[in-house]
């Protein structure tokens, strides 16, 4: 997933914040607590502890709409946890002879500097938005009442938060259809849609949810006493205005993105160095001996945010003009003898680890489709486009749950989308590892639809 999308995130901010804070606690610790002692153990212990504590306390979950008082509360909570952590270190490593009073002074000095750094970044980013118009989100509001007017006022009067409000639709009074709203949203490149639940019927809400899912738009609700959905929703506050987020995506969290990207780089590098380095020449000879044509097969597919990229495989078919239009079917005459084996064992997919290393794909994620198929499914399968909120994967939950290979009926693609959405909304590193392990087991056993 790209860290640097215009508007949704500023991908540098969280890594830079981590780097600044870790530098502060380690530099001050080395010179203030350790003096002439070897800092290696201290640095490792304190750095790992800091990261774990920050995840627990959500120290880096500061967004464009986060109020300064909430930032200060995060700093206070992190400082108390960190103080206890440093005390624990001094108890475990008596040889460092770190005493309580220096620990308290060290912690206070650390958090004085971290507070200054955190608020400096926060206010500099606000000034950047006001002065240069960067890091902004285009918004529309559906519904017209006191709450939507308050939100519109927030967007317009506080440009430092990075919202560029385009229009508020009074659907009831102006008798505007949702189709007109949807056309405006697409034409103007709107990023986020805010809906007043009290102004919309259940049917209209369902239509808006479908539209947002199928067009990769962020959808949020302004709540009232009306029942919405039984699923868990996330509350956020813009100033003092409560906002509900319908779909939460763990991989939109920067720390999760770093964890997943790190896993992708390590895993793909291992496969490339220890498997592809010797397997590629052998397969190249076998593929070339059986049929003329290139060793690798390149195909355009849709990835994160619907962006097209070149997906690589070992060639398993004789060269043909319809390879980019038609999937392989059972008994497909285009598949070579070598191709049949490498498709059955999924070896043909291994070159995609280069796609992973280069950042177009992930080891685990929704499988990317051919561009022609993506366009077709986007029109006929509800919520198909939700799959493009994350990077596509070499393997995925849908594939390990029986939905791999040829799409024979709409039931196949509907099932695939259902599992992909579950994965997107419930991602964890453990889930990725489970899917990788299950994929390996399935490859060894062989799968019915691997043809």
TrEMBL record:
Membrane spanning stretches: 12-34, 40-59, 71-91, 103-125, 265-287
Entry keywords, A to Z: Membrane, Transferase, Transmembrane, Transmembrane helix
Coiled-coil ranges from the UniProt annotation: none
Record localization: Membrane
Membrane topology: Multi-pass membrane protein
Domain Bacterial sugar transferase, chain residue ranges per copy: 260-444
InterPro entries named among the record's database cross-references: Bact_transf, EPS_sugar_tfrase
Organism superkingdom: Bacteria
UniProt similarity note: Belongs to the bacterial sugar transferase family.
Protein name stated in the entry: Exopolysaccharide biosynthesis polyprenyl glycosylphosphotransferase
Lineage: Bacteria, Pseudomonadati, Bacteroidota, Flavobacteriia, Flavobacteriales
